[in-house]
Amino acid sequence: MAERQPLAAYPLQLARFVPTLSTRANMTPSTPAVGAPPSTGFVRATSANGVGTLSFFHPKGNSLPATLLKELAEAVDRLAFDKSVQVIVLRSEGTGPFCAGASFDEFSRIDTAEAGRQFFMGFANLILAMRRCPKFIVARVHGKVAGGGVGIVAAADYSLAMVTASVRLSELAVGIGPFIVGPVIERRIGSGSFSAMAVDAEWRDGAWAERHGLYSRLCDVQTELDAHIESLAHTLARSNPDAMAEMKRMFWAGTEDWAELLPERAKMSGRLVLSDHTRKAIEAFKARG
After folding, report:
1. What is the mean pLDDT of residues 133-138?
2. Domain at 43-221+241-287: CATH code
């Protein structure tokens, strides 16, 4: 495996991106309420030595219900505004998938097009928050990634992954399409590779994901993954924040219309999730566990 040189870069002047955000005093970890069932999952944000760590967990394959999507987007905004944070590491917990995408349990409960739009806006809002964040977001991908999770990895500015972290766009298999995550994935890997992923819904291995630019670097073992994450994060934490802010602006050039584009895509998904075809496909997926 060819050696990859780590990036050197990061944050910026957030005021122009985020008008009113809570300060560090309000940046407490988001955890389930006392007595809440463990099935609710959690989002947690912490910071130390200039590195903000944003982690999430859900017992069903780190899938993302609307509540966790909202908390993730809000946490990205808070970390973006925190002057003590210079770089953000995005990770999930557990030893299973990095992210299984949207919650099928919530899919099956959607009963109107508006409810569907609101659910899919969760992914849109998270991608938009990652886009406008003036600091580099580094994704730590320890396991498989499916559906909307692929969009989250693509929205990161740099990603380190295990060789076993296969990727798949499964939306068509359940009767919808990768409409919301499509722009950010296509931006990352190109239109040809994105359309291939969207059409055949097959798993692609980590080497494919690195070769096509979704992953920046692959690691063979988790200790190597964590060592590279720590090294890169601390390098970026010592880098010039103004330079990194300008680099991020450069990386995301041409996406200025996404605040209008992604909500339109959410409407498309919201309509399609109500179809009989989609409902039957979701129930079949759920039955397979």
Report:
1. 98
2. 3.90.226.10
Going by C-alpha positions, the residue among 5, 6, 8 that lies closest to residue 244 is 8
Alpha carbon of residue 229 to chain centroid: 17
Write the burial class of residue 67 (CB in 10 Å: 0-12 exposed, 13-18 middle, 19+ buried).
middle
Interior CA angle at 225 toward 223 and 228, to 5°?
105
Q: How far apart are CA 233 and CA 96, in angstroms?
A: 24
Q: Rounded to an integer, what distance in angstroms lies between the CA atom of residue 7 and that of residue 233?
A: 10
How many H-runs (helices) and E-runs (strands) does the chain carry? 11, 8
Structure token pair of residue 182: 């499509």
Residue 138 structure tokens: 């580094």
167 near 214, Cβ under 8 Å?
yes
- Comparing C-alpha atoms, which of 127, 128, 109 is closest to residue 119? 109
In 64-180, the DSSP E strands lie at: 87-92, 137-141, 145-146, 158-162, 167-168
pLDDT at site 51 = 98
Give the DSSP per-residue string, 243-267. HHHHHHHHHTTT-TTHHHHHHHHHH
pLDDT of 27 strictly over 80: no
CB within 8 A of 151, min separation 6: which ones? 123, 127, 178, 180, 181, 182, 184, 185
Instruction: Name every residue whose Cβ is closer than 8 Å to that of residue 253 and which is 6 or more positions away in sequence.
Output: none
For the segment 225-241, the average pLDDT, to the nearest whole number, is: 98
Beta bridge partners of 101: none
> What would the two tokens of residue 117 be?
């739009």
- Radius of gyration for the chain, computed over Cα atoms and rounded to the nearest angstrom: 18
Which residue bears the tokens 């992953």?
A: 215
